[in-house]
Amino acid sequence: MNTDTFFKTLIDNTLEQYKKIPKDLERNYNNYGSLTVKQAQWIETALTRNKALRELEIPDEIQTEMDIALGTSDVVLNDKQEKTLIDRDELNQIILEEIANAITRVMERISIT
User: Fold this and answer.
1) Nearest-angstrom CA–CA distance, 113 and 35
2) Counting Cβ atoms within 10 Å, is residue 70 exposed (0-12), middle (13-18) or buried (19+)?
3) pLDDT (tens digit per residue) in 76-108
4) Are 53 and 9 a contacting pair, CB within 8 Å?
5) Nearest to 76 by CA among 88, 85, 64
6) Shortest CA distance to 9 belongs to which of 79, 56, 69?
7) CA–CA separation, 75 and 80 (whole Å)
């Protein structure tokens, strides 16, 4: 199933008073290629509460975006962990360089006087 079919089915099986929500979801997904936490939660809720949608197959692209938005994706967790380690390593390098510069300045002052 592709994303267009998924959203069409989602819209067709939503009560008339709420059809604006999945239409907005489809438009935003097509424009930005991602989902917010609230959007992913809405889709998840619709798929579990609406009997007509319970068997609806979620396209891989949308499932991936839902996992990322809801924080259930291993890839995202690993990315965050790796980014934290990179940031920590960069910070350590900067600190060591600043300490080395400070020691060099102190040694220069001592040798001048």
Assistant:
1) 64
2) middle
3) 445 554 554 556 777 788 889 999 999 999 998
4) yes
5) 64
6) 56
7) 9
